[in-house]
Amino acid sequence: MEGTRTNQRLSTAEFDLDGMLGGLAKWLRIVGFDTAFPRFTPRGGRWFVTAVKSKGGLLTVWVSCSRPLDQLKEVLAQADLSLDPCLFFSRCVLCNEPVVEVPKEDVAGKVPDKIFDLVSCFHQCPACGRVYWVGSHLERTKERLAMAGIPLDLHRLAVEEAIWGEPF
């Protein structure tokens, strides 16, 4: 499906986060990474993120900052990853499931009437039912990332604008 988010567009980096990193888990999901939380031990093939130096293994990121956006910056640097804005909000921030595009009629009564009237493209979490749409929160997310000094791939932003018809 052209112009829609599908499971084929998901990031390949996967994370298991220690139990004290809930704010970071939310931000990793917002920017499109598969993020299991809470996990108290690492699983094979996934990055394990913790603030406890005695935990971890080969694919471990140790965070020292207390603010989630600063932790995100640490994770990206230590795992040598960059953000792909095309993946923003491609996962449910609550349960980590990839969201899927759904017909507008399917979200009637599940979103505010004004949003339903103004927005034509909706995505939904197949696990918990939470509904997502392109709105001002995307611009605020980009601003918060920029203010935290987390670079965005500007070429990807241009691609997203071409697909969605507006900057993402």
Report on this model:
- With 168 residues, this protein is of the alpha/beta class.
- The chain has a domain at 7-90 and 152-164.
- Helices cover 29% and strands 14% of the residues.
- It is built from 5 helices and 7 strands, in the order βαβββαβαββαα.
- It has helices at 22-30, 68-78, 113-118, 136-147, 154-164, and strands at residues 14-17, 34-36, 47-50, 60-62, 100-102, 122-124, 131-133.
- The strands form 2 sheets. It has a 4-stranded parallel beta sheet with strand order 2-1-3-4, with helices on one face. The chain has a 3-stranded antiparallel beta sheet with strand order 5-6-7, with no helix packed on it.
- A hairpin with a 6-residue loop joins β6 (122-124) and β7.
- α1 packs across α2.
- It is globular.
- Mean pLDDT is 86; it is low at 1-9 and 162-168.
